[in-house]
Amino acid sequence: MTAIESPxxxxxxxxxxxxxxxAREAGRKALAWFEPGASTRAEVTLxxxxxxxxxxxxxxxxxxxxxxxxxxxxxxxxxxETPDDGSRRSSPEAFIIDPIDGTGGFIRGEREWCVSIALxxxxxxxxxxxxxxxxGETFTAQAGAGAWLNKARICVAQETAGAPLxxxxxxxIASLSGLPPLQLRPRLPSLAYRLMLVADGRLDATVASxxxxxxxxxxxxxILREAGxxxxxxxxxxxxxxxxxxxxxxxxxxxxxxxxMLRRASR
Length: 267
Prior knowledge:
The protein is α+β, with helices and mostly antiparallel strands. It has two domains: 9-153, Fructose-1,6-Bisphosphatase, Chain A, domain 1; 165-265, D-Maltodextrin-Binding Protein, domain 2 (3-Layer(aba) Sandwich). The chain is built from six helices and 16 strands. β1 and β2 form a beta hairpin.
């Protein structure tokens, strides 16, 4: 395997800006198929007999693969809409993307869907963009440089004495014992966007049911971490990506103490 040198700060910044522009263009392409409050104009089929995929997902996937590989030709590739042949694991870095996270909501005309892009090195996200074009929101982060929503820096919500916890996730959360009063919000079709609402403080926490895939969470994980939060598994560990196994068990997100509280309550 040929070693890949760490880019200089200037090169790193240029690469990050390039990824952000690719994400914005991908969002514009998806919006061309989107009908707010109405069914998409894109043809919809089922993959695996149960999961919807639209022509918009496939068009955005093709565009991202072309544009991102122009930026980092040697990077591996993992996308929800591209068959995984395992070749990505021969490189220490890979793009992990979801062309449209929340496809069901996109198809129905709901605005809470996003384009999710992460650049992962040695299993850890180092650059991330979650683009929510129907909402005019772009979430970004580089490792060690903070998290941003458009041009404003964001951080997770801090504890407020006596306030109920604002949570979004599986209905079973309401039955967990040992938690403060909860204010459950309607579940959103995009897990990445739910995690962004935790990152910018609109939610205190969320729980992800088992079977989230790398492409659902890799970009959101970095943005949440740079906003002062964590995304942990059932053992309380941070996640690794670009492995042979792409699926994850139940996950917990929020400020560190709250994510751990939810994990313990779920055992």
